Amino acid sequence: MTAEAPHEHRLRVRYAETDQMGVVHHANYLLYLEESRTRLMAERGCSYAELERRGIGLPVRRLELRFRRPAVYEEELVVRTRVQSLRAASITFESEVVRAADSALIASGWIELACIDLHDRKRGPIALPAELRALFPAG
User: Fold this and answer.
1) CA distances from 88 to 75, 95, 97, 126, 132 (A)
2) Domain map of the chain by residue range?
3) Strand partners, 32
4) CA-CA to 129 of 20 to 30 Å: which in 3, 18, 68, 69?
5) CA atoms within 13 A on the CB side of 89
6) What CATH architecture applies to the domain 7-135?
7) pLDDT tens for residues 91-134?
């Protein structure tokens, strides 16, 4: 992770997020990371819902996740998220998921979001709005 202090989002693993072995199913980590980054944005004064009302979308363009150890039902997790980089029409967040009890690394990765115009049917990339760029100094 970069030098900027990460945003920390706490959550408790729910039963429905686990597989038959009681381990968090890998797809749920995408939800954990999404929740963490939208909360980070909200804390910085950027409501994702407001962006969409203005016609700005931030769909996932690329991602990478590395799983280190399992998380299980009822464990408390901390998702640490920060901005890794800003480009002309994209923003990349990096995250770590750790067990709250002992800070053991569960998973880590990054997600690149493209900036698009939701009103344009082609939905090609557009420049990140200046006010959004100002909230997230590059890491």
Assistant:
1) 39, 21, 28, 8, 12
2) 7-135
3) none
4) 3
5) 13
6) Roll (3.10)
7) 999 999 999 999 999 999 999 999 999 999 998 899 999 888 88
